[in-house]
């Protein structure tokens, strides 16, 4: 009897130790799963941080390169423009356009520099965002993406038509500025005669007429900008409203698995804000 009881005691002790080991292993598994569930969202947030850092670096690189290219390209254009202007016959300068050469070289050079260094990068970034957003939307749910495609022709029609009208006004402003610069340069070249004959009031009045005409043309652009941006953002937000309305109905019918798909689909609508601004560059 004593021998059998002695044999039972180690067996009971070993069973208790195995239970404790199982409990400790279960606690380790739970702690590991808890740590993993905490770590995965943190890693996903780090992905966005890394993407933001990469975007910042890429933006700095392409902005620096485009600025460098724009500077050298503008310098070469001004040099060739000045060389071509100085190669003209004498009768060309008798037409009263000689003074506008410096103005056109400066103003048009600034426009070219601004278009290459700033607006070209924004245009490429907007197009890339637009294409990437549509690819993601088509992968998520192609039916919803096809619905929002109706925004594209509306934006192109509004932005393209009003930008064409705005370009006409901008051309007229540049012409009047060139005429005013030519007039001012001719007056300054004969400033002694102006003082001798007391022509300052007449000359300032004439120059003020140039400035007033530029102001009137510029004021005509304000309604165009208001109509352009108002129409574009109305189309964009109308598309977002259509996306939410149709997405909620599809979610209720079970055609969409979750609400996140609707927000993924709305992302192309937000990309239209950048895409629409490219028509105004």
TrEMBL record:
Predominant cellular place of this UniProt entry's protein: membrane
Region Disordered: start-end pairs: 1-28
GO cellular component assignments: mitochondrial inner membrane
Record membrane topology: Multi-pass membrane protein
One annotated GO biological process: oligopeptide export from mitochondrion
Record localization: Membrane
UniProt keyword terms in alphabetical order: Membrane, Repeat, Transmembrane, Transmembrane helix, Transport
Transmembrane segments: 47-71, 120-139, 145-165, 224-245
SUPFAM superfamilies cross-referenced by the UniProt entry: ABC transporter transmembrane region (SSF90123)
Ranges where the ABC transmembrane type-1 domain occurs: 46-266
Recorded GO MF terms: ABC-type oligopeptide transporter activity; ATP binding
InterPro entries: ABC1_TM_dom, ABC1_TM_sf, Type_1_exporter
PANTHER family: ATP-BINDING CASSETTE TRANSPORTER (PTHR43394:SF11), ATP-DEPENDENT PERMEASE MDL1, MITOCHONDRIAL (PTHR43394)
Stated name of the protein: Unnamed protein product
Organism: Aspergillus oryzae
């Amino acid at each position: 009897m004593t021998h059998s009881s002695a044999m039972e005691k180690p067996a009971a002790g070993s069973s208790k130790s195995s239970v404790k080991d199982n409990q400790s292993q279960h606690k380790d598994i739970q702690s590991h799963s808890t740590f993993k569930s905490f770590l995965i969202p943190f890693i996903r947030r780090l992905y966005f941080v890394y993407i933001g850092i990469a975007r910042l670096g890429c933006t700095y690189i392409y902005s620096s390169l485009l600025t460098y290219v724009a500077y050298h390209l503008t310098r070469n254009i001004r040099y060739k423009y000045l060389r071509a202007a100085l190669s003209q016959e004498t009768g060309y300068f008798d037409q009263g356009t000689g003074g506008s050469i410096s103005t056109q070289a400066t103003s048009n050079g600034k426009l070219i520099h601004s278009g290459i260094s700033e607006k070209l990068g924004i245009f490429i970034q907007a197009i890339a965002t637009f294409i990437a957003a549509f690819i993601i939307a088509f992968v998520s749910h192609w039916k919803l993406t096809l619905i929002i495609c109706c925004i594209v022709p509306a934006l192109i029609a509004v932005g393209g038509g009003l930008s064409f009208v705005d370009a006409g006004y901008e051309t007229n402003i540049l012409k009047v500025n060139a005429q005013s610069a030519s007039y001012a340069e001719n007056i300054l070249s004969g400033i002694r005669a102006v003082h001798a004959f007391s022509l300052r009031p007449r000359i300032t009045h004439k120059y003020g007429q140039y400035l007033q005409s530029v102001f009137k043309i510029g004021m005509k652009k304000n309604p165009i900008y208001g109509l352009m941006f108002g129409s574009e953002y109305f189309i964009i937000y109308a598309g977002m409203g259509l996306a939410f309305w149709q997405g909620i109905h599809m979610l209720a019918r079970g055609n969409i698995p979750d609400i996140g798909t609707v927000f993924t689909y709305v992302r192309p609508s937000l990309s239209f804000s950048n895409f629409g601004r490219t028509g105004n560059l």
